[in-house]
Specification:
Helices cover 45% and strands 15% of the residues. It has a seven-stranded mixed beta sheet with strand order 1-3-2-4-5-6-7, with helices on one face. β6, α8 and β7 form a beta-alpha-beta unit. The chain is globular.
Length: 247
């Protein structure tokens, strides 16, 4: 049984695979997908326990990368442009390291190739310990932190919709995702595909200093946008216009 749900229509166009982040779903890509669909075959993937995907109590980021590789082979999709947001970017990084022959390019949106810092691991452990008693409070706080103060004013409807959708995500799904993110290994190092980072310079979840430190280690492209962690919702047109490897 597959851990994730896949949505696509076969075509002769080049393929773009879109994978959302923690507490998200494929619907968060709606505007980005519309901007790309005339030129690309869009493949949507939903993380375990998110959207329409089944609940899976335990998995690793590498498990998800492997499943995507198998899905592509089963459907005769030879190569994709992989665009991953946040946790989706962690999966994309693992995919790029393990299966570069199936990749045209990797775009990391508000994401990194490196592991959690020690401080971030501690934060995830605390969340895992407390979330069974305070799930609603944790999810509400987590969503608040994804947006800048200005975005809370200008994107109220989008934020409220994310809150509503997140209520469908079970406690078990949240815990499984937190563990998978905490335990993921570093994927930093040479990858034989073009890699681009697109990040928010006001992102407080994955701060620009962390991303720029990775950019300084590797010969990857980077574009900073004036925004927070949810650029796919707040700045979709800017994302698409700044994608170097997506024409």
């Amino acid at each position: 049984m597959k851990k994730m749900t896949y949505y696509y229509k076969s075509s002769n166009k080049p393929s773009v695979l879109l994978l959302h982040g923690f507490l998200g779903s494929k619907s968060q890509w709606n505007t980005v997908a519309k901007l790309l669909e005339n030129s690309y075959n869009i493949i949507h993937v939903e993380l375990p326990g998110h959207g329409e995907s089944p609940m899976v109590s335990q998995y690793s980021i590498d498990d998800l990368a492997f499943e995507i590789s198998q899905f592509l082979m089963e459907n005769d999709i030879h190569k994709v442009h992989f665009i991953g947001h946040s946790m989706g970017g962690y999966v994309g990084s693992a995919f790029a390291k393990a299966y570069p022959q199936q990749l045209c390019s990797l775009t990391l949106l508000n994401s990194i190739m490196g592991p959690d810092s020690v401080a971030r691991k501690i934060m995830r452990d605390r969340a895992i310990q407390l979330i069974d008693r305070f799930q609603n409070a944790y999810v509400s706080m987590a969503i608040n932190n994804l947006f800048t103060p200005q975005e809370h004013v200008t994107h109220k409807a989008i934020i409220e919709n994310m809150r509503i959708e997140s209520q469908e995500i079970t406690l078990e799904a949240v815990l499984a995702a937190l563990r998978a993110m905490r335990d993921r290994p570093s994927q930093l190092g040479h990858v034989d595909v073009p890699v681009q980072y697109i990040y928010g310079n006001r992102d407080t979840v994955i701060e620009k200093s962390i991303i720029e430190a990775e950019l300084s280690q590797e010969l990857y492209a980077g574009v900073s946008i004036e925004g927070g962690h949810m650029l796919l919702l707040t700045h979709p047109s800017e994302i698409v216009s700044n994608m170097y490897f997506i024409d």
